Amino acid sequence: MESIEEININDIWQNNVNLLIGSGASYGLFPTLETRMDGESIETLGKYFEDENKQKLKSLLFMHYYVSCIEPVIVFDVDNEKCCVELLQSEESQKKLDVGKPLEQ
Hints:
The protein has one domain. About 50% of the residues lie in helices and about 0% in strands. The protein is built from 5 helices and no strands. It has helices at about 10, 40-50, 55-75, 80-90, 90-100. α2 (about 40-50) packs antiparallel against α3 and α4 (about 80-90) packs across α5.
């Protein structure tokens, strides 16, 4: 991936520019790296296990991360969620489909 040191304002002047700043773009739709422990995330726990040379715990943590965070993204099927709303009036599926919609003014 190319790294950009500087952006020339003339390159983007009068153009549409979309920016994604930070993380959490899928918050509410997919699981995040947060945990139920105050001030801890999967990232901070992984760093701690790395620093403390607890490789088995680090491996277990990342297996949990895969099953809890990665796999739901891989298996998500928007068409299936639409069918669940249409046929079953699924409120859970409707909430998933509503994530990212602009709020009505």
